[in-house]
Amino acid sequence: MRASFPVAPLGATQLAGRRCTPTISQTPAATPSQRLAPLARRPLAALPEDASARVTEVVEAVAQPTPAPAPEDAPASPSPLAEELAAEAGSAATARAAQQQQQAEQAAAALTAEVLQREVARRRNFAIISHPDAGKTTMTEKLLLYGGAIHEAGEVKARKSSRSATSDWMELEKQRGISITSTALTFEFGGCQLNLLDTPGHQDFSEDTYRTLAAADNAVLLVDGAKGIEPQTRKLFAVARMRGLPVFTFVNKMDRPALNGFEIIEQLEKEFGLQSYPVNWPIGSGDRFVGVYHRPSQKVVMYEKSGAAGRAKGARRSEYALTDPELPSLMEPDLWEQLQEDVELLEVLGDELDMDGVMAGKVTPVFFGSAMNNFGVELFLQTFVEQAARPGPASTRQGVDVAPTSPNFTGLVFKLQANMDPKHRDKVAFVRVVSGKFEKGMKVRVARSGRTVTLAAPQRMFANERQTVQEGFAGDVIGLTNPGAFAIGDTLVTGPTLAFPPIPTFSPELFAYLRCAPNQKKPFLKGVEGLLGEGAVQVLYSTDEYITDPVLAAVGQLQFEVVQYRMKDEYGVDTTLEPLQYCVARWVKGGWPALEGVGRLFNTTVMKDVYDRPVLLFRNEFALQQVLGEHGPKLGELSPFALPPDV
């Protein structure tokens, strides 16, 4: 049964009006839902319950408010339900994105931490220290041979040699056959990356050696087997001990007549208080040097000389167990008897190496061999990679230790070098990475000045050859083009500002004015700024404003010669030196106010350093003591070394 709804009939006029002329009313036309709403409230009679319910559902559905149609050019607005669902979906998507971002960051942090741990664990950083002519440059190049960094070594034997050392890049070094500057060399061996800091062996350059040791984690002490411990060896070892470095000793030149191994061990203990642990032991010396006994493996490693041993990668070698019945026939009878006696004596010294003592610098592993003929070099390198100290925590002036795996990058500027590339008048800052990851193009802050510097062109140095570096980790040494922002001892940071202990400047012993012709003043000043800014030679200035010539202050005469040579070779300037009759320098801790309170000082000249601090020059130690006796209380402390201004 259908429900009937009364509908009022429309007249013809109304129909005509609707068809022809639209009617404009004051109130808007009722929507279908508004017209049906009253009907939905009327009782439904004579309908079955299920039919009534269905009609009610239809009417209620139709009775829902229907929005007015929007203009065709207006965008359709979403319904509240759609907006709510979209909001919920957006929130869920945002939450998922945030969760994914957090997971990605955690994964990246875990990956970065893992990478840092792995890369730091495979770094070995060391410097070689020795007396001049102990074979340091030859040893350096044989290590590079085994690391695959070079394929043929350049012997440094005399000025007439056709080759020059790979690590010697300055022309003067090649001419004289000595190392004057420090060089950073990198090579791979045994799954590890080794960073070798090649230091000057000449006695005049101990200060540059000290700066280089400030960036090293280990020291390799090279001893001439024929001469034993020499004066410069003592001086350089004292520097290594100040740094608390583990020391590995290699007794070189065993292919020449040499001291007995026990004599050298005794010298190490008497001179340095070092307990020695021979890792290998020489069998003969000079022409009768046939090999070494390797204690950890209890094997005898025999060497056979070859014509190319000096330049090729390794002499021919063969290994035999100490109990091998063939071994006695491979050497002369007296050498076999001496070897048996030595092995018994070595057992008395102990069978195990105290690694805690090695890391504390109290015990030194000792190796014997010949770098020239590659006898024992590979054995040394294998043991060194296993036992050498990895990059460790570094103390700061603030008393905080910085871990090498810290996510924040920190670095120490330990050396400046000008004009390594003859085609460009550049200045390179050598930086030791202390913590974190170095990346090309990163921005760092110089702790001393607060200046932000972009490291856009990092390089790895191989003598004067360069290779662009994309990344670096603790223990690596990286060369940065110095825009004048860096000084020796600067700390570079990306995180919180901190500073590592400064590298001191020691008292020089020779002083001289450096002068040039008036028409060369411009290149002269450029050369002074470029070369002397490296710190290899200290620079002082007169307090007399009319005297503008710099005063060179050096430890040895050769430093003066190097400066003059480089001024001529790199800047085309002829210079003259006017020596000053002083040999002692002291910095006034109280500064200029302390000097003004004292008045005039006799037998003393007052200079100023590059930081405008007063420096007193004395003719001898007696003159120093005389001034201290007369003006000590007013003058205050006089220091034999100076540190850069604090951060």
Topology diagram in text:
Layout lengths: L11 H9 L11 H9 L8 H15 L16 H42 L1 E8 L5 H11 L24 H6 L6 E7 L2 E7 L7 H8 L4 E7 L6 H13 L3 E6 L8 H12 L2 E4 L1 E4 L7 E4 L4 E6 L11 E6 L11 H17 L5 H5 L3 E6 L8 H11 L6 E2 L5 E2 L7 E9 L8 E9 L2 E2 L3 E4 L5 E3 L4 E4 L2 E4 L2 E2 L4 E5 L9 E3 L11 E2 L3 E7 L4 H11 L6 E5 L8 E4 L2 H15 L3 E6 L3 E5 L2 H8 L5 E5 L5 E5 L2 H15 L2 E2 L1 E2 L5
Parallel strand pairs: 1-3, 1-4, 4-5, 5-11, 6-11
Antiparallel strand pairs: 2-3, 7-8, 8-9, 9-10, 12-13, 14-15, 14-23, 15-22, 16-21, 17-18, 17-23, 19-20, 24-33, 25-27, 25-28, 26-27, 26-30, 29-31, 29-32, 30-31
Helix pairs in contact: 2-3, 7-8, 13-14
Q: Compute the separation of the termini in Å.
A: 100 Å
Identify low-pLDDT runs: 1-28, 31-66, 153-182, 307-311
Strand order, largest beta sheet: 28-25-27-26-30-31-29-32
Radius of gyration: 41 Å
What share of the residues does DSSP label as strand, in percent?
15-25%
The assigned CATH architecture of the largest domain is: 3-Layer(aba) Sandwich
Domain unit count: 3
- Number of DSSP E strands: 33
Q: Output the CATH homologous superfamily of the largest domain.
A: P-loop containing nucleotide triphosphate hydrolases
CATH topology label of the largest domain = Rossmann fold
- Helix/strand class: alpha+beta
Helix content: 25-40%
C-alpha geometry: flat
Largest sheet: 8 strands, antiparallel
Indicate the mean pLDDT: 77
In CATH's first tier, which class of the largest domain applies?
Answer: Alpha Beta
Report the total helices. 16
